[in-house]
Amino acid sequence: MRLKQSVHIARRSLMGNKMRSLLTMLGVIIGVGAVITMISIGRGAKADISERIKSLGSNVLSIRPGSQQFGMRRFGRGSMRTLKSEDAEMLDEKAEYLSFVAPTVQSNAQVKYGNKNNNVEIIGTTPEYQRVQNSYVEKGSFFTESDVLYKEKVCVVGKTVVKDIFEETDPIGKQLRINNIAFRVVGVMQEKGSMGPWDQDNRIFIPLSTAQKRLFGTDYIREISVEVTGKDDIEAAKAEIEKLMRRQHKLPASKESDFNVGDQAEFLKTLEETGKSFTYLLAGIAAVSLIVGGIGIMNIMLVSVTERTREIGTRKAVGAKRRDILRQFLVESLVLSLIGGLFGIFMGIGGARLISRLAGWKTDVSFDAILLAFLFAACVGIFFGIYPARKAARLNPIEALRYE
Amino acid sequence: MIVMENVQKIYRMGEVDVAAVRDVSLQVDKGEFISIMGPSGSGKSTLMNIIGCLDVPTSGTYELDNIVVGRLNDNQLAEIRNKKIGFVFQTFNLLPREEALHNVELPMVYSDVPDKERKRIARQMLEAVGLADRAKHRPAEMSGGERQRVAIARALVNSPSILLADEPTGNLDSRTGEEIMEIFQKLNTDGITVVLVTHERYIASYSRRIVHLKDGLVEGDEEV
Asked: Do B109 and A1 touch (CB under 8 A)?
């Protein structure tokens, strides 16, 4: 028997049970769609991070707390509590290879204005942050050194905050409340866009000292970003920071440093790796739904084989060989999974677009992902179709003809 | 054409062996119209399955057109059924979703007759059984007699050596049954070998030879 005949028979059978075929396909449609959408989200996030790495000044270093050690015990928990404002001041003062030093503390807080309220990332820092992060005020002005000195309650807001809390009205001069403390808005930051699921505009910047003393009640610092005087000085700058910081922290030579120095690209690369694992995880979960879809196909094919026992008997009586019957049912499950896969591709692309629009995440629909999902669907169709098809092919024609 | 010698068929039913056909020797020549008669349990269905190459004997030999059927595997049996046997069943066994024409085409689908040729032969056969105008109808849209005529057309498309009919009138009223039997008679007159399995004397009387089967043995063999 020719393939054309098998396809014809499969079409007849599937069209004869439209609703059933559609529901069976739905499993594959959702599976393929989910795989494509998930991979697109993951790839989008990764592409975004990669872009950020490229746009970063390569002469920016970042100092983060390391782990503390007392005797033989390592304190993971205390690892966030080794950097202080004085470290940043000291570096600013003494380091020769550093042109700008920006310490930051950061935490999420509830922000209120009028009857609007939202959870926003609060960053406490110094004016040098702008230079180091290559991110400037667009409207109004950044807070000043003296604001930091006097713990002024002023803030600079990101674009998302303007949109969500001020509903696109001019926020400058207005008072908003962060954890119930009133802050005056003095400026609006340039738009930074989102990095994968992280919205970099849902941020409020306040003076470092204000954040430490008035808001978070801490002396410690999350990160010190520094700009090195020149690209060629990076290694020298790292060594210098290491030396100065160890002296500042009074660490004997026998002890490990309680801080890490790295360039931002390194941190982002870690993030990129995380993003990659994230993509695999998402795609894996989506693939599970595709396998469940395959089980749906198997289920329906088994029902179909039972229902059509007489038909199989008839076909065998007039000369169908085992492989003819096998092929007939295999083609049928393959057609189900391939058509499902085809619709799934459209659903996946649509899903990725929808998520881009609704969540504002960048997505990247790749040909690879589509091909992968489609081939996977085909494999699912064959894998889960083979058992029912074999069952059909092995039916004894005499019993099949007699089956009621 | 059909030569059976000491054919025996034993089925295993749980712990005991049951001999459905105990010892049958039978010869049917080309162009004969023979009925196999017997009460239920006489082994006529089993014998028919063996003649139709749906089953092989446990012992003894069955030769169809000089081919020893007992030695063939599943695929070879399928091929013989396709080329040499035309089945007509009591319950018609048409594909319910396919129209008459496609049902008639079915055996040719499995012998790889090209599309156009297949359609042409199928149409010709439908015409021969007087159903040219029913080609596009599905089985559910046809009467029992019409369905059985479609089945006969299907049995004939690959020009088989034997037309094998198992109670072909069992599901038909007596007038339609007569019409169907007349078709068999006419086909036989045209030279086709017909083997009929029935338990009705009246139906068997259309044939020219009757073999009586009882308890798996041939009890009588008479010319009509």
From this structure: yes
CB of B33 closer than 8 Å to CB of B207: yes
Q: What is the pLDDT of residue A225?
A: 87
- Provide φ and ψ at A313, rounded to 5°: -60, -45
Q: What is the pLDDT of residues A29-82, one digit of tens each?
A: 999 999 999 999 888 888 877 777 666 666 788 888 875 545 555 554 444 577
Partner residues linked to B162 by β-bridges: B85, B193
Residue A310 sits at the chain B interface (C-beta within 8 Å): yes
Q: Whole-model pTM above 0.80?
A: no
DSSP labels for A68-108? EEETTEEESGGGG-S-BHHHHHHHHHH-SSEEEEEEEEEEE
Which residues are B19's β-sheet partners? B10
- Quote the percentage of chain A above a pLDDT of 90: 44
In a domain, B78, yes or no: yes
Instruction: Quote the minimal CA–CA distance from B76 to chain A in Å.
Output: 9
Structure token digits, residue A350 = 């649509």
CA distance B224 to chain A (A): 30
Number of independent structural domains in chain B: 1
Chain A hits for B82, CB-CB cut-off 8 Å, are 318-319
Interface confidence (ipTM) of the complex: 0.94
Residue range B37-76, pLDDT digits in tens:
998 889 898 999 999 999 999 999 999 999 999 889 999 9
Residue B158 lies in domain = 32-51+73-223
A2-17, pLDDT tens digit by residue? 788 888 888 888 888 8
- Which of A13, A314, A316 is the closest to B78 by Cβ? A316
Query: For the domain that residue B167 is a member of, what is the CATH number?
Result: 3.40.50.300
For chain A, the domains span 3-52+271-402, 67-257
φ, ψ for residue A229, nearest 5 deg:
-60, -35
CB-based contact A64:A79 (threshold 8 Å): no
- Work out the minimum CA distance from A334 to partner chain B, whole angstroms: 21
Choose, out of A314, A324, A325, the residue to mutate when testing the contact with B (most B CBs < 10 Å): A314
